[in-house]
Amino acid sequence: MTPQARFRRIGWFAALAICTALYLVLQFKVSTVSSDVIKAERLIVTLEEKNMMLETEFMTRSSQIQLAAWNRVDFGYAAPRAEQFIDSERQLARFSGPRADNAPDPIRLANAVVEHETEPFPQLVSPLTGRPLDAALVEPEQASERHLALGIAPQTVRVALSAGHASKAGGQ
Question: How far is the CA of 164 from the CAs of 117, 158, 159, 161, in angstroms?
């Protein structure tokens, strides 16, 4: 290889390295501008949300002012004062008058008196064993303390997983 070809090859490698370095610098510049654009968009969204909140508050306060003006002019409502509240049912009954002739009958509440004791609910029975369940298992407060499986079957139970194991277990 001639020295001229060698210099040409080194020149191409140097040009390729410079182009690669310039590409990397340009890529970093593009990514920083892209992240700045994303930050600016997020800031715009945040400011729009704050603007919407302030517009809503402004509209609400102007509505309150309008309602207060209508109340003063048209309705004359005022907040209740302490002497307007009553303390007992007797004070409330003092405001009532005699019933009119065409008034509906008053609502009356019924009270049932039980003369004999009702039978308690039957005990819950396990569909697997046929034995009554323990009342502690049914109560929600106590159910977290004990597991249902331990209450139903406190002893260890072996279950065969395949027919081959079952025949071996049965033959032993």
Answer: 57, 15, 13, 9
